[in-house]
């Protein structure tokens, strides 16, 4: 563990490592020389180094990601009246604990994201946020062409269908009764990596997220896994920005989802950590470092 202590921080993690193993993950020793990375955070970026990260955020059962095509948002990102983001957030607030079938937690997380839709170029409703596409994680399901007015009733219908699809190992419906304009599509990527870029909330995120994203995309290109917003080849990895998720003092926060059902949330990550993160957390079926983990979860995936 010597090199991991050097690259990812120190401390006595014996109990945390046991907890990680009980959750079905494993800890990793890293042999990559991360000091060779030339990209580093500016000295002005302050990071809280003393707090223990383990369980420093709460588990959740569902994450709804709204595609906005933006890299920064108002202080309260889901506060804009008449938008899909606000409607989804309102539905989530009223639906927390409504679906215990989600697993150990039925809490619902909602974030805006830099993920795009082709409609954002020409469709005025998409541009204004009154209509949009949402990604349902950990199910890797897109619900497209959603209007702010029908978000609540649509999700009330879709959630039981998605849970049934997961439990019965059957594909969810591609169309939803009484919502003729809405389509449901499987996401073809193997993993998503999300970085907080919410400069309006904390300027450190606006500085660190682009540096992390650049390093991740460089390495993913080397591996043949990089996917840009117009590239939907299957089995790639998409890196995107999201709004405030809590813990800005622990920048950079890195949230990862795999289609196999694993969810890893790391913090205090730096550009020199990028290659081990992709090698171990993304490609090695969820190996993690005890000093970097905020939470880890495993979900049952939907099969198409």
From TrEMBL:
InterPro entries for the chain: Aim32/Apd1-like, Thioredoxin-like_sf
SUPFAM superfamilies associated with the record: Thioredoxin-like (SSF52833)
GO cellular component annotations of the record: cytosol
Gene3D superfamilies on file: Glutaredoxin
Domain of life from the UniProt record: Eukaryota
Record-linked PANTHER family: ACTIN PATCHES DISTAL PROTEIN 1
Protein name according to UniProt: DEHA2F18040p
The organism's taxonomic lineage, starting at the top: Eukaryota, Fungi, Dikarya, Ascomycota, Saccharomycotina
């Amino acid at each position: 563990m010597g090199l991991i202590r050097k690259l990812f921080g120190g401390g006595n993690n014996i109990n945390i490592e046991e907890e990680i193993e009980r959750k079905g993950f494993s800890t990793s020793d890293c042999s990559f020389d991360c000091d060779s990375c030339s990209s580093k955070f500016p000295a002005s970026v302050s990071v809280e180094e003393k707090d223990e990260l383990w369980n420093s955020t709460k588990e959740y059962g569902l994450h709804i990601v709204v595609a906005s095509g933006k890299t920064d948002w108002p202080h309260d990102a889901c506060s804009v009246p008449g938008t899909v983001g606000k409607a989804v957030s309102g539905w989530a607030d009223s639906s927390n604990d409504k679906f215990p079938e989600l697993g150990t937690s039925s809490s619902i997380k909602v974030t805006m994201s830099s993920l795009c839709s082709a409609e954002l170029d020409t469709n005025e409703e998409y541009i204004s946020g009154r209509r949009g596409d949402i990604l349902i994680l950990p199910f890797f399901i897109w619900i497209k062409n959603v209007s702010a007015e029908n978000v609540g009733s649509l999700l009330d219908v879709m959630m039981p269908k998605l849970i049934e699809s997961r439990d019965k190992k059957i594909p969810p419906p591609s169309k939803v009764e009484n919502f003729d304009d809405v389509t449901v599509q499987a996401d073809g990527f193997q993993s998503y990596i999300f970085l907080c870029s919410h400069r309006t909330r904390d300027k450190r995120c606006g500085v660190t997220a682009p540096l992390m994203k650049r390093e991740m995309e460089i390495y993913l290109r080397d591996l043949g896994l990089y996917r840009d917003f117009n590239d939907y080849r299957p089995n790639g990895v998409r890196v995107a920005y999201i709004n405030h998720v809590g813990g800005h003092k622990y920048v950079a926060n890195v949230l990862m989802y795999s289609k196999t059902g694993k969810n890893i949330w790391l913090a205090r990550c730096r550009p020199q950590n990028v290659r081990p993160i992709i090698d171990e957390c993304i490609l090695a079926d969820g190996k993690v470092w005890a000093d970097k983990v905020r939470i880890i979860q495993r979900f049952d995936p939907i099969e198409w």
